[in-house]
Design a protein that fits this description.
The protein is of the alpha/beta class. 27% of the residues lie in helices and 27% in strands. Helix 5 packs across helix 6.
Length: 237
């Protein structure tokens, strides 16, 4: 594996998460993002059949998972605090079937307990300082017989100086929404304290199949890019 040299790129500007994603929303769905290419199919596979179920998509962004779940027959609520991302989500074909809620995940979730069969939180926990708080809220709103699916950029990417970032479409400068830099142990321990069990954990490496779909993936060949988990209530076992 050949790490990307820091000398090949300028240091990104670190900005508050909401500001970063409002700006990123302008190009989020159009840019070549190997993490999204890899993650989207993997999450939907792990989520399974959602027809007739209630799904909460926590940190829904531009609605890629929320709209797909609604199209698959679920009743879906998508939550995000970025007006830019929610605006893009609301304009997507099929978005009318999703209830989008503007809400800051740092102050809890505005839903009754045990009201969702599935809870997704995809490429969001990377940016959450209080992992315990959000995961406890996810456990609270998830039914006893339901499960949650979470995805994050693999923490190994930090070894080559990579976190979620993009190029500002106006200035070309690299922008990085602030991330605490969690390790796998941080996620697992917060999940356990929230009352969840890790039912599934997988680490997904950049391979030839992904590079055929994403030109940008070639610079990360051989590196783990995605960490994916499915969680169930510990007391349900």
């Amino acid at each position: 594996m050949q790490p990307v040299s820091a000398s090949q790129t300028t240091e990104p500007s670190v900005v508050p998460v909401r500001e970063g994603y409002d700006l990123w929303s302008r190009i989020y769905d159009e840019e070549d993002n190997p993490l999204l290419v890899l993650e989207t199919d993997q999450v939907r596979r792990l989520l399974g059949n959602v027809r007739g179920l209630r799904v909460a998509d926590i940190g829904c962004g531009t609605g890629r998972h929320a709209v797909a779940a609604a199209e698959a027959g679920a009743t879906v609520i998508g939550v995000d605090f970025s007006p830019g991302m929610l605006s893009k989500a609301a304009k997507k074909p099929g978005a009318a079937a999703v209830r989008f809620v503007h809400h800051d995940l740092a102050i809890g979730l505005p839903f009754a307990s045990k009201t969702f069969d599935r809870v997704t939180c995809c490429l969001v926990l990377d940016h959450i300082v209080d992992l315990d708080g959000l995961l406890r809220e996810m456990a609270r709103i998830c039914r006893e017989d339901g499960f949650a699916v979470i995805s994050v950029m693999h923490p190994a990417m930090m070894l080559i100086g990579r976190q979620a970032e993009f190029a500002d479409p106006a200035s070309g400068r690299k922008v990085r929404p602030a991330s605490p830099g969690h390790q796998i142990a941080d996620y697992v321990m917060a999940i356990t304290r929230a009352g969840f069990l890790v039912e599934h954990m997988s680490e997904h490496v950049v391979d030839a199949e992904l590079t055929a779909r994403s030109e940008r993936a070639k610079k990360y060949i051989g590196w783990p890019l995605l960490l994916l988990m499915r969680l169930r209530h510990a007391r349900a076992r």
